Inverse folding.
């Protein structure tokens, strides 16, 4: 009886061992399969499901779908979208050539310059807002019979006939009063004014240059009715030191008697646009000159008060 029991017990143990081996085999096969699947997806043991999907999506967005990129750059904006242009700003076009600004924008306070229709008028108002035609040259330019600080018969010695006649009388009157004068610069063409103005801008900058020099086309010298004068010795010619000299005082007191005005008087800079120039006289005719002098006006103020304020004025 004891031998039979021992045999049965040994069979049971064998069955258990077989079952255990089978279980181990199944577990091993599942682990191998799981490791194979993980290798295929590139997923490590520490990654949670979906991490590789996000990484793949991130690399695909920059190459396939692409994020909007700002014009002229290779990098996207911080928001991932193009910034909307400001109200006064247009989207940049890398192939578009920037438009050149109007000449008046770089040389004048605004772009409201008007070219006068009657540049030959003796009372034509020429300033920073009213200009002469670029090709305008008075037809009656002459060499006045008065002394200049130079001897050559060149362009700046010329002046219009009507002004030349009055200038001769003015010089004679000054000499009689013991204050002999000399001319410095009269007529100046558009091209000559451009050369001078450009030189002043290079030397002092645009803003400062415009306080004492005219933009080409807006210079009174081009009218042939204006002239810069100084003392016979030529000292302080067209310079600040001319102010206060006997010659400057004489001109301020007597120029209107001959039809001339001090075109850029002291204290009127905000009206004329230029600093005080006691040497710069302009012919407008005796009638207007007397009113301007007696009422302490500029030519601009005279036109506003007695004219219609327009540029198209005539008469002497």
């Amino acid at each position: 009886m004891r031998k039979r029991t021992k045999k049965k017990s040994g069979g049971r143990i064998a069955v258990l061992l077989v079952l255990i081996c089978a279980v181990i085999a199944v577990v091993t096969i599942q682990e191998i399969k799981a490791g194979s699947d993980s290798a295929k997806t590139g997923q490590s043991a520490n990654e949670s499901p979906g991490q590789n999907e996000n990484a793949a999506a991130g690399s695909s967005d920059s190459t396939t779908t692409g994020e909007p990129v700002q014009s002229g750059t290779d990098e996207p904006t911080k928001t991932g979208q193009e910034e909307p242009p400001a109200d006064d700003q247009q989207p940049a076009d890398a192939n578009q050539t920037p438009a050149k600004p109007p000449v008046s924008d770089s040389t004048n306070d605004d772009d409201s310059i008007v070219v006068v229709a009657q540049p030959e008028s003796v009372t034509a108002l020429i300033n920073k807002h009213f200009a002469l035609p670029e090709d305008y040259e008075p037809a009656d330019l002459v060499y006045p019979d008065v002394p200049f600080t130079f001897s050559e018969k060149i362009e700046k010695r010329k002046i219009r006939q009507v002004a030349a006649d009055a200038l001769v009388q003015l010089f004679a009157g000054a000499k009689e009063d013991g204050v002999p004068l000399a001319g410095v610069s009269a007529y100046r063409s558009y091209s000559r004014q451009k050369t001078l103005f450009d030189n002043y801008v290079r030397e002092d900058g645009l803003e400062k240059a415009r306080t004492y020099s005219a933009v080409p086309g807006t210079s009174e010298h081009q009218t042939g009715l204006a002239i810069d004068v100084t003392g016979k010795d030529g000292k302080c010619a067209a310079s600040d030191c001319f102010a206060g000299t006997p010659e400057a005082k004489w001109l301020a007191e007597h120029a209107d008697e001959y039809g001339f005005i001090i075109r850029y008087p002291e204290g009127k800079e905000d009206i004329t646009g230029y600093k005080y120039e006691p040497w710069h006289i302009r012919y407008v005719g005796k009638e207007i000159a007397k009113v301007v002098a007696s009422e302490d006006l500029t030519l601009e103020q005279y036109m506003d008060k007695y004219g219609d304020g327009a540029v198209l004025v005539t008469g002497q």
About this structure: The chain is about 40% helix and 10% strand. The chain has a mean pLDDT of 76.
